[in-house]
Each structure stands twice: as structure tokens, then as C-alpha cells.
What we know:
Elements: E1 2-7, H1 13-20, E2 23-29, H2 33-43, E3 48-49, E4 66-68, H3 90-102, E5 106-111, H4 119-127, E6 132-139, E7 150-157, H5 176-179, E8 195-198, E9 201-207, H6 220-227, H7 245-249, E10 259-260, E11 281-283, H8 302-308, E12 317-318, H9 321-330, H10 334-349, H11 359-364
Parallel strand pairs: 1-2, 1-4, 2-3, 4-5, 10-11
Antiparallel strand pairs: 5-7, 6-7, 8-9, 9-12
S-adenosylmethionine (SAM) binds at residues 8-14, 29-32, 35, 52-53, 69, 72, 91, 330-332.
Amino acid sequence: MLSMIDLFAGCGGMTSGFAKAGYTPVLAVEWNHHAAATYAANFGEDHIRHTDIATIRDKDIPQADVIVGGPPCQGFSNLGSRNIDDPRNSLWREYLRFVRRANPSVFVIENVDRFLTSSEFALLKDEIDGYHLSAGILHAADFGVPQRRRRAIVIGSRIGPIPLPTPTHDRWHPVRAVLDGLPERPATTALPATGTDFLGTRVPGVYKSADLHIGRNPTPLSLRRYRHIPPGGGRFDLPVELMPRCWREKKTGTTDVMGRLRWDQPSLTVRTEFYKPEKGRYLHPQWEPGEHGHRVDRPITHLEAARLQSFPDEFRWCGTKVEIARQIGNAVPPQLARSIAEHLRPYLTGGAPTVPTCPLCHTFE
Ligand SMILES: C[S@@+](CC[C@H](N)C(=O)[O-])C[C@H]1O[C@@H](n2cnc3c(N)ncnc32)[C@H](O)[C@@H]1O
């Protein structure tokens, strides 16, 4: 049995992948009440600490084979300064405190891609003793996630160098693999009015994945805009009279906003506000030209976003619509986490390497 600690656990995307690969979580730390409740609904209440990481005492940190998690990174690229008293570094100090105390054979950090040039990473390299570090960028689509999502991954090992995993997929899964067949018109715009007690406080949920297939109420102007945007297109496809003034005046810049997905490609990165088309390429991929063309003029639902993040349908959710969207967009795609977990196992156990099962390869190809 391999044990793990998940720091800054969110809803547990990372734990989900590691658990599928057979690891057992012995501690998770997450201070957001709704995210911690989602974690508890999936992995149990017994080992989740719903608190600021700084409040956990050394004596309450158990030993574990692996620590995973990435402290939120400010993303300041000030490699030159390396000011170890910078308050932004305090979460990194916490991470290092857990590594020293739990003494894992391996730790894994996931973060935004600019992390590798940040002062936080410089601090980590300066302060960590006895661990060999492998660092680089992994692309979720290379590991069976139907999404282009680049993430910095650092593997720290005190049992000899461990390289980053190599891609398991030479063909990327398209959006179609997870969105095809879901109702085009969600039956409701609200989550069911249920609540559950989590550590003495009421939170909305627990929801099944199907509950997350919720629509929105776009204005007539929004609907007229969506209608003009073909797969792969975006705000530049709008006729001038439908452009908001700020876009009319800004002729260059992000092309993804008000974008429409393509059925036969992975999505772009699913962020925390995927339900707002003006924030990225989040319009449903179904679109045909012409007055009577078959179009689905809405952003993706929470269920669709969770599937693009490779969350299994059996995953359970707690929180408001906004909080659940944040949990989904912040998560490490479970299928990427599972690939990392399977990659680490032979180094930890001396066993033979295994190739992670990919549910999409099995179901759709
Ligand atoms: C990027 S998310 C983690 C996602 C997670 N790894 C997953 O796969 O689902 C970072 C999390 O750190 C939590 N967090 C930030 N500061 C914290 C602190 N001081 N103590 C505990 N949790 C914290 C946030 O609430 C957020 O959920």
C-alpha cells in the first residue's frame, strides 16, 4: 500500500488520479469549505483538514510515501531577488515543512507553467536538501485528457532520480469523446436544492455529475452573438454591430474569447469561469451555418467542463455553481494525475512499470 498526502487539495483532482492508481490518502489540507466538502464526499471526512495549512502542527503530520500538491503561485518572475523573507513565499515554506516532517520518498508539485521561472521555484531549489528534482512542462492531452492544458510538474525524489513521465497518447482525444450524447438543452439552470452537513456547516450538495448539467439564461443579444461564431472561431467573427465597444476598439489580442470549441480537437484550457463565453473558448461545438443550421448556442455546462477535465462521472460535488466551477477549473486533471501516479509506482515499489488505463481509449476508440 502506498500512502499519500495532498496539500492544497481543492476538490481532490490530484487525489482522484492517485487513488485510481491504488494510492491511499492519509491527509489532505484545503481551507475552502466547499472544496473540502467535495473532497470529503469522494474520499472521506476522516483525513481532510479544513483549515489554513499554517495551522497544522508538526506533530499532526503523518509519514507518507508521497506528497502531492502545488501551493498557489504568485507567478512573479523575480529570479534575481530570491528574497526568502518575501511573504509570498510562506506557502512554499509550509510545503517544505510538510516534506521535512512526512519524509516522503517522492513529492510532486503541479503548478502553472510560469512556475518554473518563479521566485518560489528558486526558493524551493535552494532550500530542499536530499531530493533530486526533475522539472518540466507536461501537456494533459498527451496523457488522455481531451484538453490542451500545459502544467509545470516537479518530481522530487530521495530514492534516486525519477524523470518526468513520457506521453501515453500519440493521438489526442477530441471534445467529441466526452460531450457527444449529452443533452444539448439542459433541463434546468439551477442545482437541486439539497444540502449536506460538512464538519458542522451546511453546504450545497452532495451532487451527482448529472446534476451539474445546468444551463444558463443568456440575453437575446448574447444569443445573437453566439449564433455568428463557428467552431474554432471567436470574437473576430462577430459583425461589427454585435461587438461590444471594447472589442471593436481592440482589434488585436486574445482570439479565444467568445470562442467555440471544435468537435474533433481537444478543448483549450478549462479555467474557473468556463460558464462565461466572454472568458475563453467555451461555446458548445455544435454549429452549422444558415438560418436553419443545427446549432447549440450556449457555453459548456459544469458536467461538460468536468468531463473535459477527465473527472469520472461517479465523482460527487458540493458547493454553489460558482464554487464548483472553481473546483473544476483549478483541478489537476485526474487522468494526468493517474499517469503520474502509475509512473512513480515502480520507483517506489520496485515493481514492473504499468501503463495507465485510459477510459476514453476503451470507450470510444
Ligand atoms: C489549484 S487549487 C488545487 C487543486 C487540486 N490540486 C486539485 O487537483 O483539485 C489550490 C487550492 O489551494 C487552496 N489554498 C490556498 N491557500 C491555502 C492555505 N493557506 N491553506 C489551505 N489551502 C489553501 C485553495 O483554496 C485552492 O483550492
